[in-house]
Amino acid sequence: MWFKQTKNNSVSLSCCKAALTNCTGSLTRPMDLYSEGCEALVVKKLQEIMMYIIWAALGFAAIQLLGMLCACIVLCRRSRDPAYELLIAGGTYA
């Protein structure tokens, strides 16, 4: 794409290998340039990051479900066990 736009037989300087300081992006010296594009690398890195985000979200959801389950157990026991009665005299049940 860059080559078609510039029409000067060169590529962007971001295609130059990092270890080279005198790279001009010229296609006459292909050994100074990266041979692969960076799109695949960026997509792969984003997929790795998204996996961490997905696992964190699933872990958070599991903790939330466990909390809801514990709350339901306590609520069910409260109606059957006198130890779970309200501390306020004359209070109403929620």
Q: Mean pLDDT, nearest integer?
A: 79
The major beta sheet can be summarized as: none
Binned, the helix content reads 40-55%
Low-confidence spans: none
The number of distinct helices, counting runs of at least 4 residues, comes to 2
Beta-strand percentage range = under 5%
Between the first and last Cα atoms, what is the distance in angstroms?
66 Å
Gyration radius from CA atoms, angstroms: 31 Å
Structure characterization notes:
It is a multi-pass membrane protein. Its main location: membrane. It comes from Chloebia gouldiae (Gouldian finch). This is Tetraspanin. It is found in: Membrane. This protein is an all-alpha fold. The chain has a domain at 2-65. It has two helices and no strands. The protein has helices at residues 2-6, 39-80. The chain starts with a helix and ends in a 14-residue tail after the last helix.
